[in-house]
Amino acid sequence: MIRFALRGLLGRKLRTALTAIGVILGVALVSGTFVLTDSISSAFDSIFTENYKNTDAAITGKAAFELSQDNAGTAPPFDQGLLAKVAELPEVGAAGGAVGGQAQLIGRDGKAVVFGGAPNLGFSVDPARPEFNTLTLVKGAWPTAGQVVIDTKTAEAKKFATGDTIGVQARGAVQRMQISGLVEFGAVSSIGGATLAGFDLATAQQLFDKPGKLDQILLAAKDGVSTQQLVDAVQKILPAGTQVRSADDQAAEDAKGTSSFLTFFRTFLLVFGGIALFVGSFVIANSLSITIAQRTREFATLRTLGASRRQVLNSVVLEALVTGLVSAVAGLFLGLGIATGLFKIFDAAGLTLPNNGLVFRTRTVVVALAVGVLVTLLASLRPAWRATRVPPIAAVREGAKLPPGRFHRFRPLGAALLAVLGVALVVSGLFVDGLSTGALLGLLAIGVLLIFIGIALFSARLVRPLAAASDPVARWSVLILSIVAWPLFSLPYWLLRRGFWGPGSMASRLGGLLLGALLNPVLLVIVALMAVRRAVTSWQPEWPAEFPGVLSDRPAVGIGGQNSRRDPHRTASTAAALMIGLALVTLVATLGAGIIRPFEEAVDKIFSGDYAITAQNNFSPLPPTVAAAVATVPGVDALSSVRGGQGRAFGETIQITGVDKQAPDVLRFDWKSGSQATLGELGADGAVVDADYADKHGLAVGSTLPLETVAGKTLPLQVRGIFKPPAGGSPFGSVTISTSAFDATNPQPLDLYTFVSLRGGVNAANTAALQQALSTFPNAKALTREQFKKVQSDSIKSLLNVLYVLLALSVLVSLFGIVNTLVLTVFERTRELGMLRAIGLTRRQVKRMIRHESVITALIGAVIGILLGLGLALLLAARLDEISFAVPTGQLLLFAVVSVVVGIFAAIWPARHAARLDPLEALQYE
Questions:
Q1: pLDDT of amino acid 111
Q2: What angle (nearest 5°) sits at the alpha carbon of residue 112, between those of residues 111 and 118?
Q3: Which of 70, 169, 226, 714 gets the most CB atoms within 10 Å of its CB?
């Protein structure tokens, strides 16, 4: 039976290849995800390790509590005098101090140099301590006072050389500095799109507003002193607000934020790989079901010759095992190409990621192979079990079919119950309070999975009415696409074939092509007019034999519509693959519309000023000096900035914000307790909190709120007001205090946004005045309220586009599923097609029949998928206040059109194959 199964696979190479495509694509995304994230992680690890080469321990500032990994909140710097004390320790062989921060390089055009979303790093360098210097000087010299070294990539991209002058913006306005040299980061081949700027210590302290302060001291132990001995010795003299770690521990701490992001990024991509595999499992199950149904007489013959049911089962399972293993191996290595392609896509988009070469770990091989084989085996179980029910007597019967199972009549009820159970799990995950994140995600994942399976199984009952309803749409879709496609594709192909490969001189060939290009739009109009006339008068034009026809007879499309209803289970299973992809795409589109609308409404509710000042990338915080420059603009009626940071209260780390006395003039709150005047009267001990935080901790106006800051100081705050944030979110943290109280206890404060009101409102003169004030801060820009909403919404739309691209893989898998099903049904109906051709059906009509069937199948999947996606979005919108339920009608219509196009493309090859069948040979086909 093993030899029989393997020969069967080799005898059906085309069918096996089409069946395997879904697994190959899914495994490729899983493999590519692991390779991509492992490669990025390895590059980052190399960067952090290189950062502490020749270092045994590092002293850094210490926040009073564990900070979350974001831009808000940093550990405070410490006094520079600690360097001399540490250097005197007998265990210390060498010590070097450094400061760092964000340093924006300014190009010759006066704009900030940015490569995607990569950071702009600035730090001090000490040539006297080369053992601690991670930079390699490629050209020029190390910087002295007022000079800078920049990385070679920035220099090459922006045409800078040693001796040139470049702008640098850090905590203050732009400063012009001479480029003393060009550097690279140690032995790391690529640090991604980050820009590097190095200064001498005094210059760096001035740029980053850290006079007499250090962020870090690097230590090397004397010979014979262990790392632990060095750490213990330094620990004894450390002042409050500092800490010492070994070099390895410090590198791990620095990498913590990156590791968290990569873990999320890997999980994020693996989810889409899982979706592609899930869709692929439907393709596999459907393909195996069709092939097993087509091999009824074959299995019956085996049973007649003495094969047992177990042997038949093992034969089919072995075929699936081999298919899954080969597919997984192919997908595993295709993943290398996907990872390489993703790196190039990120590069082209300006988001250059660190890369030290592709990393192909054993875990990637094991997981990819295991997933591919298991998915294929699981998808093959039901078809394999069906194969065992073939009765031996079927070997002598013409057109024998598999008998239905004992529980076949309960399938609709079981499918409905499965979908209901899935909905119940989703509702439980969304609306039951107190669930952990893992339990919540588990309930949602299992619930959605059951919903998809239940709907896919139940949809067989919906095929006939949906096919009947889709039939007119499919007719006109095929007609319109044929009208457009014929002059645009078929005619140029015909002219190319006649012009280049036919007789005649080169001049006549080129002339023929030129004539074809000129006639193309004319023919398109002619064909369109003839189509209209055909629709009105049922007139059928006669085309020359060498031209492919564009208009078909009604009998052909009628047969195509009947074929889609002939086997509802097969049609439903084929449409299910597309249904899943479109359901998820619809869900994303609906949620995107539901997020953008509340956000824009939130901006209108909160922002009462005229302009908002943000970073060029729309999300990075800005130093307070930017707001100070804007305040000098003539005509400023009110200006208020929202500081951002972190604090600790009631045993948890929270986001805190700070506002000044002018906040009531440019910001509006929906007050539960308090008033607009409250914002300007917070003073040194006042605070306002959002309603959810107040309810969680039982706070009311007058309550005491002890807030610990990163510097270790506890502020005894009193609640002065409680506000309700709008559904679309707000820039304010759980606790908001005055700017003066915020700056007194938070080192290096940064503004999330600055809001401005000017006399005369938004006009060209005010805009020009703001731009002039910001000319010394190229990393900042002024936006009107509408512009502010647009750029923030565009960032959401960019994320949605990424999701669409990733979900397109599942749609691609479903396209191959439709192709596979159509090819298999062409094989199955070979004799039928031969008979149709024998009684007069033309090749053109055969193609139209297959296309029509394909479009109906795609439309069924689209209708069910869109409705299912809307239902899931409605559940999420009902649970989350930040999301409203908004139907993106235009996008849904686009998705429906795309599904029709998918159906047309899926039918191209099967239709051509069916049309080329020889009628006499087809009539003799077994």
A1: 87
A2: 150
A3: 169
Tokens of 682: 């917070």
Q: What is the mean pLDDT of residues 896-908?
A: 79
Q: What is the mean pLDDT of the chain?
A: 79
| Distance separating alpha carbons of residues 628 and 160, to the nearest angstrom | 31
Structure tokens, 195: 């820009």
Range of the domain at 700: 621-778
Residue 639 belongs to a domain? yes
Pick from 208, 196, 195: nearest CA to 114: 195
Rounded to 5 degrees, what are φ and ψ at 839?
-95, 10
In Å, what is the CA distance from 213 to each residue of 55, 60, 123, 172, 219?
Answer: 21, 11, 13, 17, 17
How far is 402 from 45, CA to CA, in rounded Å?
58
CB atoms within 10 A of CB 409: 9
Contact (CB, 8 A) for 906 and 811: no
3-state secondary structure 474-535: HHHHHHHHHHHHHHHHHHHHHHHHHHHHCCCCHHHHHHHHHHHHHHHHHHHHHHHHHHHHHH
CA distance readout (Å), 465 to 430, 799, 856: 33, 37, 11
Helices and strands counted in the chain (H then E): 29, 24
Number of C-beta neighbours around residue 263 at 10 A: 12
Asked if residue 259 lies in contact with residue 69, where contact means CB atoms within 8 angstroms, the answer is no
Q: How many domains does the chain have?
A: 1
Residue 295: how many other CB atoms lie within 10 Å: 18
Residue 563's pLDDT band (boundaries 50, 70, 90)? low
Contacting residues for 232 by C-beta, under 8 A, at least 6 apart: none
- H or E element, residue 447: helix 437-458
Helix (H) or strand (E) holding 118: none
Closest residue by Cα to residue 809 from 379, 286, 338, 349: 338
For 114-151, what is each residue's pLDDT tens digit? 876 678 889 999 888 887 888 888 999 999 998 999 99
Q: Which one, of 91, 104, 15, lies nearest residue 623 by Cα?
A: 104
Report the DSSP beta bridge partners of residue 57. Answer: 219, 246
User: What's the pLDDT score for residue 501?
Assistant: 44
* 827 torsion bin: left (phi>0), alpha (psi -120 to 50), beta (else): alpha
Q: Is residue 664 part of a domain?
A: yes
Q: What is the pLDDT of residue 500?
A: 44
Domain assignment present for residue 663? The answer is yes
Query: How far is residue 247's CA from residue 58's CA, in Å, rounded to a whole number?
Result: 6
pLDDT at 141: 93
Which of 147, 247, 277 is closest to 200 using CA atoms?
147
Measured distance CA(57)–CA(260) in Å, rounded: 24
Check: CB of residue 407 under 8 Å from CB of residue 362: no
230-234: Cβ within 8 A, 24+ apart: 230/56, 230/57, 230/91, 230/92, 231/57, 233/89, 233/90, 233/91, 233/92, 234/57, 234/59, 234/86, 234/89, 234/91, 234/92
pLDDT, tens only, 78-119:
999 999 999 999 999 999 999 998 899 998 888 888 876 678
The dihedral formed by the CA atoms of 87, 90, 91 and 97, expressed in degrees to the nearest 10: 0
Domain assignment of residue 678, yes or no? yes
Say whether pLDDT at 619 is over 90. no
Lowest pLDDT segment from 468-472, 588-592, 604-608: 468-472
Neighbours of 62 (CB within 10 A): 17
| Distance, CA of 817 to CA of 824 (rounded, Å) | 11
Question: Dihedral through CA 572, CA 578, CA 584, CA 589, nearest 10?
Answer: -120
DSSP letter at 351 equals: -
Tokens standing for 342?
């993703």
Q: For residues 605 and 567, what is the distance between their CA atoms, to the nearest angstrom? A: 55
Token pair 């200006």 is at which residue? 639
Is 625 within 8 Å of 726 (Cβ atoms)?
no
